[in-house]
Amino acid sequence: MNFAMSIGSMTNWWSAYYSDHQVISVLIRYVHLAALMVGGGSALAIDRVVLASARRRTDDRRHAAMTALRGSHLVVVPALIVVTASGVMMTAADWSTFEASRLFWSKMGLFALLVVNGGALVAAERRYAQAADVNKWRRVILTSGASLLLWMLILLIGEWLTVAA
Predict the structure, then answer these.
(1) Prediction pTM value
(2) Which residue of 38, 68, 76, 88 sits 20 to 30 Å from the alpha carbon of 155, by its own alpha carbon?
(3) What is the pLDDT of residues 29-51, one digit of tens each?
(4) What is the CATH number of domain 3-164?
């Protein structure tokens, strides 16, 4: 038995439960979308603040962006955990559809890149906080720009999946 088949057999009971209990499926989709709005919205707002600081290039702008960036982790990280948990539940409910979908696996790859980029953003933020150097701030700007792009691509592919599935 291969890995995909064993996952399929393990998720059969969940798939039946999910499809037979509309309230559960609606709540899980709601929680997923709400976490995306809260976490993704916060991340996008902070990314815009960081990117705006690149245009104005003042210490005050960088300091304000750093303050906002530090505080955003308290919202974005828990939201990503909720998105991951609810996403696993939705995927398990329809594993046979998603296991062979290149689009789905592309989205998962982009999500993994988003998480890795988030770690790089935190590392860049810490390096800049240790020594406020313009070159270190550029790393914050680059990872923030990548974050914005990844969030938008994941949203696009997620919407595409709803049509393709």
Answers:
(1) 0.87
(2) 68
(3) 999 999 999 999 999 999 999 99
(4) 1.20.1420
